[in-house]
Amino acid sequence: MPIRNVKIEYFFYPLPILLIILSLIFTVSFHLYNPRIEFLPTNMKANDIIIGALMVGLVPIAYFQWNSYNRKRKIQRIIPKFLDTLAENLRGGLNFTNALKKATESYGTEVSSSLRDAINKHYLGLEFSEAIKLASKKINQADAEPFLNVISRAYYAGENAVDAIKNASSFYWSLEEYRNTRESETRVYIGVIFISLLVYLFVVVLILTQLILPITTFKPKTAAAFSLNINFFGNISATFLSSVFLWMGILESLFSGLIIGKIIYNNLGAGLIYSIIMMVITLITFNIFS
Asked: What does the pLDDT read at residue 3?
């Protein structure tokens, strides 16, 4: 949703940092966290507030990034179909503008609405190439620009318009087939990454509940045992170790989601939705078992 060439989601990028700062002020004010004494909050409520603020700040960014990805893919999928329809209309005997207008009626997308607007401007006297440039600016999508350039060149190709469109259509079909194959083959990594997170959480919970907590809460019953002063972790408390494992899981969740976005969707931001899901799983797990 561009407003004067500035996208709304840009205003949400600083939101996670702002909310984290506010959550830190809140936790410090209510004595849930003291950064002068502890590097990480040992109070689970403080962790919940800070991590919750981070997730809330990421939600609008993830929403806009996912919508942007879906918008881009919708345009990519419609391009080869649109070109085939346009070629068939031209073969049916329609002139280029009528064939183009009829093709736009077959697909209810922003590409079609922008092209219809361009056709109307052309009817009013604007040069076709200029009208197409305005349509490209209106769509404001990288994949739409070369497609609209194909439309513009085909308009001036005269009798060779059908051949030009069919050649472009073959290229876009090949590109779309590659994208679909790539996405279908890489989707397996979503499961792999989620399983790796679950394995991490299982191991951490096992270490916390079966090793760290029993040792740190161990109370010797004899005077001789008291004199030994057994302490395997020095002055490090179990709550601090739990907090360390928690933040390790949160960072793993954040970057794992970004990796999913890059590998599968070729878009880091599209993976933020998976980051948030994994962060929720991690936070719930630690609230239950720590």
From this structure: 43
